[in-house]
User: Which sequence fits this backbone?
């Protein structure tokens, strides 16, 4: 009998060994390996491209059937691929904020109403927003508006679509780049490294929805993530970036419009103020696609509207707190 098409390969099974996975992806020269990957992935030689993509496929279940292009110039070209028009329908309900990316939902829940505004990266592993967002006056003001609100962790695996989009109609008012390490951000590392997101390279995107509600989106880089790119900022935010950390911008986006991309898998954190709730069915371990319901924002409702927000990927499970 032939094995099932989705049976894990030997390399995939080895990658699931927690001790081996942690050793191979963290106890290595992370910054040097990430810079090398940034260079290597852009090599356009057909032999290099074919060999590197074959290795990549042996570790992941990548599906390129939705990609706009049918062939790629390099491994990097495949990482940052665009999708065919209509591949990610966007929930049109006006009170719904959608997932900005394809992801697996990680820790999610309420932001503590305490001075540190504590949240969780994994069960038993809290971190304070005061560490994640930096010490600028803008970041401190944002924390004051977020206490008692909600958050969600969205993990992009290496095989996923790597572009991220606006969760709703919004304006990106400011971006803060925070240089840092490149620890792996998979669940294995999140259960071993305290305050991991606060250690890694990241960008803090200060946004405001059309109704005036503040929204914070934090793309976090990781090992092999050679760069983060934002449509509103014409520079690559990576380990080689030496420009200003505070990047004023004023870019308006419609719901579902592309805001930027990673150049490998990583994580996006989304933080909302009190009054904006996670949709029913959003829970740790859930697979979600860009454009599917993530939060509901009653302030965005027109008069006489009646909100019913359920994630289209919902199951019969209930969300549990870390």
Assistant:
């Amino acid at each position: 009998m032939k094995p099932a098409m989705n049976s894990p390969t030997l390399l995939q099974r080895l990658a699931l060994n927690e001790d081996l996975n942690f050793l191979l992806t963290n106890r290595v020269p992370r910054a040097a390996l990430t810079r090398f990957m940034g260079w290597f992935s852009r090599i356009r030689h057909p032999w290099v491209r074919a060999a590197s993509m074959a290795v990549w496929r042996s570790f992941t279940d990548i599906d390129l059937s939705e990609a706009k292009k049918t062939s790629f110039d390099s491994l990097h070209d495949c990482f940052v691929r665009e999708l065919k028009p209509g591949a990610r329908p966007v929930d049109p309900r006006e009170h719904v904020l959608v997932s900005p990316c394809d992801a697996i939902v990680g820790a999610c829940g309420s932001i503590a109403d305490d001075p540190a505004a504590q949240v969780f990266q994994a069960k038993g592993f809290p971190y304070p927003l005061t560490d994640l967002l930096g010490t600028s006056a803008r970041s401190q003001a944002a924390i004051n508006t977020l206490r008692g609100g909600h958050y969600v962790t969205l993990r992009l695996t290496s095989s996923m679509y790597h572009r991220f989009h606006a969760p709703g109609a919004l304006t990106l008012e400011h971006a803060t780049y925070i240089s840092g390490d490149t620890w792996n951000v998979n669940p294995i590392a999140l259960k071993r490294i305290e305050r991991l997101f606060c250690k890694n390279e990241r960008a803090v995107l200060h946004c405001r929805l059309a109704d005036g509600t503040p929204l914070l989106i934090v793309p976090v880089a990781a090992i092999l993530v050679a760069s983060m790119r934002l449509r509103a900022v014409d520079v690559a935010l990576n380990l080689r970036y030496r420009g200003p950390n505070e990047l004023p911008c004023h870019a308006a986006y419609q719901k579902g419009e592309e805001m930027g991309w990673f150049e490998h898998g990583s994580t996006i954190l989304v933080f909302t103020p009190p009054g904006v709730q996670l949709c029913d069915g959003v829970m740790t371990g859930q697979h979600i696609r860009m454009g599917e319901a993530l939060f509901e924002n009653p302030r965005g409702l027109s008069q006489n509207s009646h909100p019913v927000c359920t994630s289209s990927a919902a199951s019969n499970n209930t969300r549990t707190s870390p």
Notes: The chain has a mean pLDDT of 81.
